[in-house]
């Protein structure tokens, strides 16, 4: 039998997850192995160097740059506060003095006799790393971060925008193919993660942002709405850094596409749970997928130990990840062993897919991904 090992789009009721959480620069780890953490817990902390502010003392006092040390009142390493006089001229008979005041709080980092400028380093900028998911610390990486382990429902989407968010899960749509009216979203949905059916339309997203919704989970999104929301055409890139005030998780693809029945029912079962989402996606390459993580108790049944590779087999549910069938769902009906030629004359391994309407197509195996449902 022919097997293909592919990165699957996971939809798993219960699994053991391991997540690496890392600081952007060396810092202090605040937890230890064995500690239990909540999503909002700060698990590591670092400090970014403060911004540099320049004060042109030579210009402020109308003196040559090389004379700066004759008039400066502070030295390198001294602390200063905003508005404090750093340099002054004697004036005439004590009158008509010129002064140069600090533009900010900070520490003097350098004084230049060449440019006549004083360089002031502002206070360090604290960087806090939160757990983002409910779990247990199983490993610490000195000065870098930790590895967390969690029992959770785990769902991957096909596309997302916006970074990490946490909120109570609420299924607003009555069915996976519903096109939700934006007016359905009100103040009661603030700080929640909402399942909104087949389409995250631009008006719906705007309404969600106004109501303080943390995240939206939908089957599809229109290209035009995405461009309008971002203000630019999204190319080959990694999403997740957008500052929109909301995180979007698209489970199926582009256009009006009903959420897969299995995914929708699973989300309904977990309704009311604290849910962690992350819209970060690596476009086209498929290395990074948006994620939905819903914590479970350690005694949850049907926990997938995630120790075996997924194999593509007859009957396996799959999703098409390249045009012209991008986003469509189906199942495998044949796995030919022989390599098949493409239009480019390259020979690749292929499979036959049957869609819900009964139509069948033959595609390169690289054009599909498995949907894990166990």
Gist of the model:
The protein is mainly beta and 374 residues long. The chain is 9% helix and 39% strand. The protein has a 16-stranded mixed beta sheet that branches. Strands 5-10-9-6 form a four-stranded antiparallel beta sheet. Strands 2-4-11 form a three-stranded antiparallel beta sheet, with no helix packed on it.
Which properties best describe this structure?
OB fold (Dihydrolipoamide Acetyltransferase, E2P); 16-stranded mixed β-sheet; 374 residues; SH3 type barrels; elongated; mainly beta; Glucose Oxidase, domain 1; disordered N terminus; 27 strands
Describe this structure in words.
The protein is mostly beta strands. Among the domains are: 52-121, Beta Barrel (OB fold (Dihydrolipoamide Acetyltransferase, E2P)); 158-289, 3-Layer(bba) Sandwich (Glucose Oxidase, domain 1), CATH 3.50.30; 317-372, SH3 type barrels (Roll), CATH 2.30.30. It has five helices and 27 strands. It has helices at 57-61, 68-71, 202-210, 223-230, 261-269, and strands spanning 9-22, 28-29, 36-37, 42-48, 52-56, 79-80, 85-88, 99-101, 106-111, 117-121, 125-130, 135-141, 145-156, 159-161, 164-171, 192-195, 215-221, 247-254, 274-278, 291-295, 317-320, 329-334, 340-341, 347-348, 350-355, 360-364, 368-372. It has a 16-stranded mixed beta sheet that branches. The protein has a four-stranded antiparallel beta sheet with strand order 5-10-9-6. A three-stranded antiparallel beta sheet has the order 2-4-11, with no helix packed on it. A hairpin with a 4-residue loop joins strand 25 (350-355) and strand 26 (360-364). The longest helix is centred in the middle third of the chain and has 9 residues, at 202-210. The protein starts with 8 loop residues before the first strand and ends with a strand. Mean pLDDT is 87; it is low at 1-7 and 300-310.
């Amino acid at each position: 039998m022919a097997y293909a090992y592919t990165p699957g789009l996971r939809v798993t009721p219960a699994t053991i997850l391991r997540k690496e959480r890392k600081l952007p620069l060396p810092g202090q780890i605040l937890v230890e192995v064995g500690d239990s953490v909540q999503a909002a817990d700060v698990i590591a902390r670092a400090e970014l160097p403060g911004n540099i502010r320049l004060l042109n003392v030579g210009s402020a006092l109308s003196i040559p740059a090389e004379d700066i040390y004759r008039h400066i009142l502070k030295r390198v390493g001294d602390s200063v506060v905003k508005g404090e006089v750093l340099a002054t001229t004697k004036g005439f008979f004590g009158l008509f003095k010129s002064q140069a005041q600090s533009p900010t709080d900070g520490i003097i980092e350098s004084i230049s006799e060449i440019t006549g400028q004083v360089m002031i380093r502002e206070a360090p900028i604290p960087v806090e790393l939160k757990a983002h998911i409910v779990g247990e610390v199983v490993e610490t990486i000195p000065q870098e971060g930790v590895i967390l382990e969690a029992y959770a429902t785990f769902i991957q989407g096909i596309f997302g925008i916006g970074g990490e968010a946490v909120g109570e899960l609420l299924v607003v749509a009555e069915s996976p193919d519903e096109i939700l009216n934006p007016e359905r979203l009100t103040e009661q949905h603030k700080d929640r993660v909402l399942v909104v059916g087949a389409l995250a339309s631009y008006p719906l997203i705007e309404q969600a942002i106004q109501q303080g919704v943390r995240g939206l989970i939908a089957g599809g999104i229109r290209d035009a709405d995405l461009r309008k929301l971002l203000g630019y055409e999204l190319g080959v890139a990694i999403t997740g850094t957008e500052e929109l005030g909301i995180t979007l998780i698209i489970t199926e693809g582009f256009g009006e596409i009903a959420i897969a029945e299995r995914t929708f029912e699973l989300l309904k079962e977990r309704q009311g749970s604290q849910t962690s989402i992350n819209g970060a996606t690596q476009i086209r390459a498929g290395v990074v997928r948006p994620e939905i993580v819903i914590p479970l108790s350690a005694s949850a049944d049907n926990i997938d130990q995630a120790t075996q590779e997924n194999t593509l087999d007859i009957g396996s549910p799959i999703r098409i990840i390249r045009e012209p069938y991008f986003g469509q769902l189906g199942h495998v009906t044949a796995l030919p062993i022989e390599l098949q030629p493409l239009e480019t004359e390259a020979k690749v391994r292929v499979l036959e897919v049957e869609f819900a309407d009964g139509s069948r197509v033959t595609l390169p195996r690289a054009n599909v991904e498995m949907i894990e449902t166990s």
